[in-house]
């Protein structure tokens, strides 16, 4: 066998070896001086309000941590990529961040992209913490965890909240959900199951698809004819704003109860926000809370963006601090290989208790299946802001 240096210089051989590794999809070797954390979510397109808040909230947390000495004495580098709420583009974004040297991922923001990217992080053994990917399969692998509630947990908790709230318990309920999305159907199915066990009265259970998400007159008329005084909307804020507008046009004024996808309705262009007065959302975050941590975050966020953060941003902020807590608990360093870091972080997630959080009035812990333990709460829109409901 010929010695390589007779043909190639050492430098050329090293370059060739690295290019071969890159071609095989190996994780890029990174500097041992900084942690490289990536983020993926929609900062353009229909779901941009979610991704933009996540991007900016992560930056705030990263800046705070770096100013206080970093993680285990190491600074954080942070880069965020837009996926336009598209699974294929999210995978492309992942590959871009991987080439950059990403070691851990905060993302994705929405469920379908998160599921697609989880296949990649699983293959690479990379630690993944989604702030807001609610579909069950977002955390189907051991390396993936979430900060938010899953779709089934949101549906179950919503039914429990309604059943336990004296003002809502006796309601005649109608449901309007999107049968073409995993997000909406997952919440819907668990809500219906739990409502049945709690004796809630569901009079109308109607659906729409992405192709018919502009005219809700049939669903609203069915709810009105059935005497429904509460409509459960496990959908996104864009369609919810149309439903509230169309209900108002037909003189129908039930109580509306939504989940995390409804957050953002107050920022919909040309929407009359007065129509959202009295709307309930299941969420553990309220920007009007008066504790020091929330006030600090909201003020910094408003200074950076000019608007109040939504719960997606709050979950993302907490996600970065969860990474810090776990990395410090397990003595993680940037010199670790991505897969070693991922395995160590995943083990640490089940051992850590996150105390200083925005998105729960108590602490957050995690189970081995990637799910958080935290208190579900609801907010009600009053005076154009989200206020924690009792």
What can you see in these coordinates?
By secondary structure, this protein is α/β, with parallel strands linked by helices. The protein folds into three domains: 1-29; 34-149 and 290-375, 3-Layer(aba) Sandwich (Rossmann fold); 152-287 and 379-388, Response regulator (Rossmann fold, 3-Layer(aba) Sandwich). The chain is 41% helix and 17% strand. The protein is built from eleven helices and 14 strands. The chain has helices at residues 10-23, 48-67, 87-100, 111-124, 151-164, 182-198, 217-225, 237-249, 292-305, 311-329, 338-349; strands at 34-41, 75-82, 104-107, 127-130, 144-146, 172-178, 201-208, 230-233, 255-258, 280-282, 365-366, 372-373, 378-382, 385-388. α2 packs parallel to α10 (311-329). The radius of gyration is 23 Å and the shape is globular. The termini are far apart. The model is unreliable at 1-30 (pLDDT under 50).
Give the key terms.
14 strands; single chain; Rossmann fold; 390 residues; five-stranded parallel β-sheet; alpha/beta; disordered N terminus; seven-stranded mixed β-sheet; 11 helices; globular
The quaternary organization reads as single chain
Q: Structural class from helices and strands?
A: alpha/beta
Helix content: 40-55%
Domain count: the total is 3
Biggest pleated sheet: 7 strands, mixed
| N-to-C span | 77 Å
What is the CATH domain class of the largest domain?
Alpha Beta
Provide the spatial order of strands within the biggest beta sheet: 7-6-8-9-10-13-14
Principal-axis shape equals globular
Predict the CATH topology of the largest domain.
Rossmann fold
The total beta strand count reads 14
Residue share in β-strands: 15-25%
Going by CATH, the architecture of the largest domain would be: 3-Layer(aba) Sandwich
Which stretches of 5+ consecutive residues score pLDDT under 50? 1-30
Q: Please tally the helical runs, counting DSSP H or I stretches of 4 or more residues.
A: 11
Rounded mean pLDDT score: 91
CATH superfamily of the largest domain: Response regulator
């Amino acid at each position: 066998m010929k010695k390589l240096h007779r043909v190639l210089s050492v430098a050329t051989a090293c370059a060739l070896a690295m290019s071969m590794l890159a071609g095989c999809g190996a994780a890029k070797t990174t500097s041992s001086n900084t942690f490289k954390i990536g983020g993926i979510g929609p900062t353009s397109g229909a779901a941009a309000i979610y991704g933009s808040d996540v991007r900016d909230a992560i930056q705030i947390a990263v800046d705070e941590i770096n100013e206080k000495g970093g993680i285990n004495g190491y600074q954080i580098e942070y880069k965020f990529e837009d996926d336009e709420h598209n699974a294929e583009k999210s995978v492309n974004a992942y590959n871009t961040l991987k080439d950059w040297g990403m070691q851990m991922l905060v993302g994705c923001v929405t469920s379908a992209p998160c599921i697609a990217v989880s296949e990649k992080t699983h293959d690479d053994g990379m630690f993944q913490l989604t702030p807001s990917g609610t579909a069950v399969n977002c955390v189907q692998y051991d390396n993936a965890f979430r900060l938010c509630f899953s779709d089934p947990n949101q549906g179950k908790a919503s039914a429990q909240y309604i059943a336990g709230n004296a003002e809502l318990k006796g309601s005649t309920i109608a449901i309007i959900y999107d049968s073409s999305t995993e997000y909406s159907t997952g919440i819907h199915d668990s809500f219906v199951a739990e409502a049945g066990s709690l004796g809630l009265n569901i009079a109308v259970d109607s659906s729409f698809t992405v192709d018919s998400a502009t005219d809700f007159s049939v669903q609203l008329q069915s709810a009105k004819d059935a005497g429904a005084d509460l409509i459960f909307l496990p959908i996104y804020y864009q369609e919810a704003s149309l439903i509230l507008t169309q209900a108002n046009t037909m003189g129908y004024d039930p109580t509306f109860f939504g989940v995390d996808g409804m957050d953002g309705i107050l920022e919909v262009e040309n929407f009359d926000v007065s129509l959202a007065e009295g709307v309930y959302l299941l969420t553990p975050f309220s920007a009007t809370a008066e504790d020091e941590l929330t006030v600090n975050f909201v003020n910094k966020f408003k200074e950076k963006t000019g608007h109040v953060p939504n719960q997606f941003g709050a979950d993302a902020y907490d996600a970065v601090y969860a990474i810090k807590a776990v990395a410090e608990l397990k003595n993680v360093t940037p010199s670790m290989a991505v897969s070693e870091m991922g395995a160590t972080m995943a083990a640490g997630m089940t051992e850590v208790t996150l105390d200083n959080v925005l998105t729960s009035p108590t602490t957050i812990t995690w189970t081995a299946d990637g799910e958080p333990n935290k208190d579900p709460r609801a907010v009600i829109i009053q005076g154009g802001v989200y206020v924690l409901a009792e």
